[in-house]
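hey team, just a heads up i'm posting the complex here instead of the shared drive bc the drive is being weird again. everything in one block, sequence lines first with there labels, then the predicted structure for the whole assembly after. its two chains so it's a bit long, scroll down
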Amino acid sequence: MTFLNSAMLAGLLAVGAPVAIHLLSRPRFRELRWAAMQFLLPSLKKSRRIAHAEDLLLLLLRCLVVALLVLIFARAVRLVDPADLAKAAGTDTCVLILDQSASMGRTDGFRATFDMAKAEADRFLAAQPPGSASALLLATDRVRRVIARPTSDLTNVRAALASAPLTDAGSDLYPAIKAAVDLLKKTSSDHREIVLFTDGQMTAWRQLPAIRTLLAESPQVHLDVHVVGETRDANLAIVSVQPQVAVVAMDQPMRFAVEVANRGTTPATGTSVKLAIDNDTPVAEAFIDRLEPGASRVVNLGARFSTPGPHSVTARLPSDSLPSDNQRTFALRILPQLRALVVEGTVPAERVVGDGFFLSHALVPVPPDEAGRYFIKATVSGPAELARPALDGYPLVFLSNVARLAPAETQNLRRHVESGGTLVVFPGPATDLEFFNHNTDFAPLLPAQLAPSRVPATQSKILGWQSRDYPHPLTALWNDPAAGHLGSVGVSRYFPFLGAADVLESHGVETVVHYANGEPAVLEHTVGRGHVILFGSAATPGWTTLPLHPSFVPLLLRIAAQASGQIDEGLNLPPGQAFSAPVDADAGDAPVSVIRPGETTRRAAGLVETTAQGAKLRYDDTDQAGVYRLFVGDEARPRALFAVQGNPDESDPATLPANDLAALMSPQPAAAPAAAAPASPHAPAGARVPGEELWALFALAALICVLLETALAHYFSRSKI
Amino acid sequence: MPRPAPSSSTSLLDPVAIERGESLGFLARGIVEGYRAGDHRSVVRGFAVEFAHLRDYVIGDDMRHIDWKRHGRTDRYYIKQYDQDTNLVVHLLLDGSESMAYGSGPLTKLHYAKSLAACLAYLVLNQRDAASINIFDTELRQHLPRTDHPGKIHFIMEQLAAFAAMRPTRLGAAIERLSALAHTRGIVVILSDLFDDEQAFKRGLARLRVQGHEVVVFHVLDPAERTLPFDGRVRFLGLEAGGTIEASPAEIRRHYTAEMDAFCRRLRSVCLATGSHYVPADTARPLAETFGDYLDFRRQLRRSR
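-- predicted structure starts here --
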């Protein structure tokens, strides 16, 4: 026998308590002169023999009760020979895998598939014979090791199973099966089994060939799959919610594209799609008359945000058997206003053809009478504006055909960029290469040095931009064929960048877009906390068609969105991905609290992290889809808001074919000879291992002792009356 | 418990017991011999009855024995005493050992026994019988020869009252000594708690009976000695044998009372076997009841013969 909680054996000291009480209970005598002494002694001898025996019996029972209680708390277990353990009929070492992906939330109207799977897994564990060992893994598209090593304490495994939560994550069973195989390879039990409880969704078996290979390489391991739940005929899912504008701003009409897919086997008719802001009452609704099985439809729903800051929009469908895909939330930060400064190199008397004309009009692409209500305010001025302290009020600064800058202007501009501003440079005919390439304050701002401008060496003397495969976030929009392409943007004169692309990349410079000949056309890099985007050509039609190209406005809007931090903001995450956002340095080490999806009260969520790059909020527990609100200290308004969006693949009802499933569950391999079985994973070779817990036996014995002691004490006291 | 002070002589006579005893008389159950004619049958039989002497008539004397000739001459009544008539001799053997000094209440066993002895002596002397008083502990410590003078009762009571229990018991030796002293048959009344060698007691009784004495054993016990009624834990200090015993009376009560009952039964059996009377004398019981009930029993027994 050994003990799982041997520290409790210190309680055996308490066995001395009844003995101490017995010894300390020394009687006090009163004296009495007595004549009939000859009758006392024989009586005393007789009664003392009996009383001594009675006292001893009661003392033994009391000490035994204390000792049994200590053994219960010390969790005594029987030591068994691993060979005996293996020889015992039906003893297993198994790894339980429970699928906790979003698709397991499908219900039959009463219970979710997940709950049914847990109940079946619990019955499986309860039916395990004494001596069986089990581990527990939870599977989504990752694996979580709840009970990392097989244990014979199945009570503990069952408790962990009962508390396992359902998530909104996607599913990929390969990592969990591989982890289980690796665990079982380390054991020596004759019967090693992976017991998987899942809904059989095909998506989870996306790495089926790898799983087959894994199992084939581990013939000692048997896979047993329990498919739980039923496939329902009807299921509509919201696959995506996306804003249709590059920059989301206050009081601007906005459209959100909501894609609805029919994942069922029957047509869906009269489907209502609603859009709500910040989980409030719906502000927009659309109807889908009919949606065939397997088809999807995008509906556009409008919304307007009256206040700036973090918000969410939630698209909802009527509830069906899989509730998790009936809504999807998109988090975004609404801008109040964006101010842009366009610095012209030359300010002509006739502004119509000024260097900043096309830029300023592309930034505010509305009629003059609406410009006041537009969220972007563009100011056109000369270089002197750069020296003003008010430059900080312009998150976005354009330099268009600026020759050179004064030292004060350069230094102020550099300070502005390093503190988080965005600088976009369009060189032009007036550009002073000496200043651009060698000025000690200005040159480091640029991603690359400029070579003297030249005419493209093409036959048409026009060099176009690349027409597809745009990896950079600023141009990723044009990966969607519906948005067109940038291949029709052409330059008739441009400044080549000095330095090979790979060299530039090694210095942190990214190519936003390149020419058709592979030369970079637009470069970007970070300086301090800001960004600098360098075009290779001017912002006027004399050198390039870009200002007149349909992509000019959306490109500038995306630049503006990046300047405001909206692009690549990381506000919408898949389940399980950690959220991180910078905060002011003065918030360092402040307590953080969170309101999770579906909840109204705050939970503690650690502290603001302070790193070399500054203070930031971080939250890891994102297995549940929906909106998360993070607060710093006692603030009433959330400092950050983000949304977790489930994997749309979880809505796919397709299941793994039965024959594929059967092929995976190979027959039980023949047991290896017991003599060849090495020791269990818990102990060195030849050592006995923990087997069955004995607490129930000790508890019963303690109860019997207590009852016996009570009855005997009563009887002995009565016999003395 | 401290040794009780010697009883005062005046407290030994229980008036109720005396009254009851007087009404019932203390009549010899068996055949006794006396030194003068009395109310008791004599074991000496013969056809020659010799005139012994005259004595003054006392109320209650048999009128058949009045010497009428002397009355005619003197005008006084005289009783003829013949050899064939005897009177009762009661030998009182009182246990004066230390064990008799125990008493759970105001009355010790010794006081009770002394009172019983005083009442018996008074009754015997009052009916013109003779009584001898013998007090023993390890030996026959005090011997008052037999007397039939009623006036001697005060002296007897003084001697009884003055005796203090200070020594252990040797009942067998006392009985043996008494049997040597009691030349004539009579009634031997033993008043003792009998906490001594039972075999010696048995031999003593047998010897007395062989000598023709009628033996009455008043077994004087305190009620606490019978029931052991104490609570808690007690350190018993021996009165005679010394030593101490610590015990919880509640724990040993059952065994103790069994031992005591068996002891009493054995003594009763011994008495029965020797033709002696065994009279339990519980000190909690009024003396008059014990005394009177026994005398009543004797009277009825005599009538039945």
